[in-house]
Amino acid sequence: MEQQMIDHIVKAGRPIPGQSLTNDPTAPQPFEKAPEFTELRDAIEFIFATIIEEDTYIPLMEQIDSGLPVMDFVQIYLFEGFQNGKWNPDLMMLLAEPMTYMIMALAERLDIDYKIYNGEDEEEDAEEAALGTESSKRVLEKIKTVRKDSKIPVGMIPAEMMEEINALPTDSLMAAPEEKPMTESLMAAPAKEEEV
Fold first, then answer.
1. Which of 19, 43, 144, 145 is deepest in the core (most CB within 10 A)?
2. Which DSSP symbol is given to 20?
3. What residue spans of 70-111 are helical by DSSP H?
4. pLDDT in tens, 41-56
């Protein structure tokens, strides 16, 4: 019976229980090393700088506008950061709330009607099933209150970051990008200068 279970696990591509204990200690996974960020403020600044980059900001806001729940993005982003050795699980949990507020502020700046999580309009039972712990439930209630009041708690996002959020352009994300004027071809013959 044991051998059948092991064969099933191996065929499914999942690691065998205890397999991580046999990994080569000289080549640890990124999350097995010391994390890159250990301070909350430093990690928040890193996340903010990352999500306001044009290559991230525009697609993120388009996804939020198309119905991607903010918490789905936050969970994926933070877990990926953990896997890549950016932060440990404790810091990852502390980053969830400020990152959610950041994305909410960015979406509000563009007048995007966002969802905090899937099924947020449903009954409280569904919330408990989605969240699990009481502390998560309290945080979510706090976030929902912020959404109604449109006021992010003071100190949750540093003042400098709020200034940067307010300075971001509010042009339509769906608008076609401006076309740059075409420069002369490098293969064209050089223009002749007139003699004076």
1. 43
2. G
3. 70-83, 89-109
4. 999 999 999 998 888 8
